[in-house]
Design brief:
Length: 303
């Protein structure tokens, strides 16, 4: 037996693998080139129940499943990951790791271990880069969703599995939330209440100074309109780059900001007084229809 390290993956060469994958029962069972019986029964495409045994040289027991679990049956992905016509098997283990059992074109059985980092799904072959940056793959790959703000795909490189990331969030959603924040900033600098309220929904929640309220659109216009008309900001800027996040289903978003403001405010009788503060807040957004709307704000002021 020989062991190699390829692109951060452990490759163990030289072991017999005996596995069975249960898939859709309508097609009965069939033998694969590596002695694997595929009995199609109650199986979502790409997600099967693998049963069988693997010798210690496969090193599956290092990350799981245990031998007795494999004999009873464990969830796996069954597909031809390297495009050589033989069915391969990706078996999840502990702490997000997985073992992939394969047979190469020379008839040598192999095991690769990858740090998948989450729940594995089957990645479909594609001939061109997708709209979110989905990578090209001649064969099936392994997809792991939501590795941070990205999805990860493991695709066969000819020597091992390459890990490729692509955005889990549409770039235009992130850009649009940044645009709406910039619009709110400009509304303060210009003293324009209508520009500020332009992206806000009727239903709104505010958490500030220890209280939670639900001001209507007219309440916000009445409270903020005079304040913006009477205040002239010489500086109203982001202190740090805004932090933008979008929910996994693309319907909710938030922008976390820290803003510094300086200027003057006209008081009764035309007297002016300086205005200076630094504040951090979270702008809350919801996609209503196809439009992002600001639905709330959580803020505090620097002492």
């Amino acid at each position: 037996m020989r062991t190699f390290m390829i692109v951060g993956l452990t490759l163990v060469v030289g072991f017999p693998a005996i596995l069975a994958a249960h898939q859709d029962a309508r097609h009965g069972g069939q033998k694969t080139d590596v002695g694997v019986r595929v009995v199609k029964q109650d199986c979502v495409p790409g997600e099967c129940l693998c049963i069988g045994t693997a010798p210690p040289s496969a090193r599956i027991n290092e990350i799981g499943p245990r031998p007795e679990e494999l004999e009873r049956g464990v969830r796996c992905l069954a597909a031809d990951f390297d495009g050589n016509g033989a069915v391969d098997y990706a078996i999840p283990g502990a702490e997000g790791r997985a073992t992939i059992l394969m047979r190469d074109e020379a008839g040598v059985d192999q095991a690769f271990q990858i740090d998948a980092g989450g729940f594995m799904e089957l990645y479909q072959p594609r001939a061109s880069i997708g709209p979110l940056g989905e990578p090209v793959s001649r064969n099936h790959g392994i997809l792991v969703r939501w590795v941070g703000q990205d999805h990860a795909v493991f695709v066969w490189s000819g020597k091992g599995f390459d890990r490729k990331l692509f955005s889990a969030v549409r770039a235009d959603d992130r850009a649009r939330l940044l645009e709406l924040h910039a619009e709110a900033m400009e509304a303060h600098r210009a003293g324009d209440i209508e520009l500020l309220l332009k992206a806000e929904s009727q239903e709104y929640v505010v958490a500030s100074r220890g209280t939670v309220s639900h001001p209507t659109l007219e309440d916000r216009r009445a409270a903020l309109g005079p304040y913006l008309r009477e205040t002239r900001f010489t500086e109203y800027v982001d202190v740090v780059p805004p932090v933008v996040k979008v929910s996994r289903d693309g319907t909710l978003g938030w922008v976390i900001v820290q803003v510094r403001a300086r200027g003057e405010q006209v008081g009764p009788g035309g007297a002016t007084q300086p205005v200076e503060f630094e504040s951090a807040w979270i702008e809350l957004y919801e996609k209503l229809g196809n439009e992002w709307r600001r639905v709330g704000n959580v803020s505090n002021f620097k002492e």
